[in-house]
Amino acid sequence: MSRIAYFGHDAFNGNLRRRVQGFKDDGLDVVGFMMRRRDEAVTEWDNVDLGRTFDGDFGQRVRSIFQGAKLAAAARDKLASADIIYARSLDMLATAFLAKRYAKLKTPVVYEVLDVHRILTGKSPIGFVLRRLEGALLARCKHLVVSSPGFLKNYFEVRHKNKYRATVVENRLALGEARDPRPVGPKPQSDDALRIGWVGVLRCKRSMGLLLDLARTFGPQVKLVMHGMPALSEIPDFHERIKDLPNVEFHGRYRSPDDLSRIYEGLDVVWAGDFMEAGYNSVWLLPNRIYEGGYFAVPPIAPAGTQTAKWIGDHDTGFLIPEDLTNTLPELIRSLVADRQRIAAKRAHMLELPNATFVAPRGELAVMISDALSASANDNEIGLSQNSTRDTRKTAQ
Question: In the chain, what are the domain boundaries?
Fold first, then answer.
């Protein structure tokens, strides 16, 4: 059984927990080396706490790399027990390599990217320095894992060409997360309000504006239901903007996967748009909502021209709308309010799709880790061969 040292930015992040579950589903052993965004530090896996970080505090995040690396190296026995290091996001990749250096280890490293931060795509001096750092570390990694082919095509092939071996591992539910059975058949027809969900990290100011406009325009015909934590660094007036709207519900933090069935059971459609990093990450990503909603047969709504829209179109699971969204989104909602059968037809199609559309197949992560370990072994053999050649030449001289 391979053992993985997983360096993560937040032990309570849903995607990070999903990856841990996926590793376990594939028979891999995991020890975490993780920072956190809350005071609590309880996890379901063996975890070395690397301290707390704060969203939006760039300086503190940089300092945490050095502090976290020292804490990880201090737990050298656990770190050295791992066959491979798996690092989620650039700051954790830097932490992992620094911890390796402090602990004097040669463990191979895999780099996982589920978002490309806007700083990395910009022209600022900081962006340039971070891209150089990422390129240097990426060239020393044995594998790159991305959650969307859009990241490879639009970022890594442009910025770091020929520096990596890559695998796309979509943000599908882990097998161990698909605990609740999928729905059977259509939802009962109802004259109640059309329930539009916004689920996950509520970070996009434009999305919030579009959805609140729907609530105001349609009144009791529509209910906006939000589950997750708002990114107040992006939407500081979040709570102020929703407090006087009777058809807007905010349920706050939830636990994935435990609460997913309850959440999606209460929705008719789910919003899958994102404009926080318009033109870049927002266009390239594939969000959790298309897989979670798909498993529970809740059709997504997404802007056209994005990687999300391509995925939805390829699988025919939802509704795509072109710009100008201030016009096309209300038009779509008006049509769905008038004819719920459009939602029922999408739902029926989603229930006909195989589970593997929305749930990771067994062995996907194990194969990727095996490939990375094989690449590391091959690289080591090449290195030994080259050293042997150099030694022979030196002897001949």
Answer: 3-176+361-392, 182-356
Whole-structure pTM value: 0.91
Q: Per CATH, which fold does 3-176+361-392 belong to?
A: Rossmann fold (3.40.50)
* Ordered DSSP codes for 333-364: HHHHHH-THHHHHHHHHHHHS-GGGTBPPTTH
Q: Are 298 and 262 in contact (CB under 8 A)?
A: no
Q: Give every CB contact of residue 150 below 8 A, 6+ residues apart in sequence.
A: 283, 284, 285, 286, 307
- The identity of residue 236, as a single letter, is P
Distance of CA 151 to the CA centre of its chain: 12
CA atoms within 13 A on the CB side of 39: 0
321-338 burial code (b ≥16 CB/10 A, e <16)? beeebeeebbebbbebee
Query: CA-to-CA distance for 288 and 360, rounded, in angstroms?
Result: 12
Nearest to 336 by CA among 226, 190, 232: 190
CATH value of 182-356 in 3.40.50.2000, 3.40.190.290, 3.40.50.11540, 3.10.20.30:
3.40.50.2000
For residue 308, what are the CA distances in angstroms to 102, 117, 168, 274, 342? 41, 18, 15, 10, 20
Are 3-176+361-392 and 182-356 in the same CATH fold? Answer: yes
Contacts of 217 (CB under 8 A, 6+ apart): 330
Per-residue pLDDT 10s for the chain (397 aa) are: 899 999 999 998 889 999 999 999 999 999 999 999 887 767 889 999 999 888 767 778 889 999 999 999 999 999 999 999 999 999 999 999 999 999 999 999 999 999 999 899 989 999 999 999 999 999 999 999 999 999 999 999 999 999 999 999 999 999 999 989 998 876 766 668 999 999 999 999 999 999 999 999 999 999 999 999 999 989 999 999 999 999 999 999 998 899 999 999 999 999 999 999 999 999 999 999 999 999 999 999 999 999 999 999 999 999 999 999 999 999 999 999 999 999 999 999 999 999 999 999 999 999 999 999 998 888 776 654 555 444 433 433 3
Burial of 89 (0-12, 13-18, 19+ CB in 10 A): buried
Angle (CA) 33 38 40, round 5°: 75
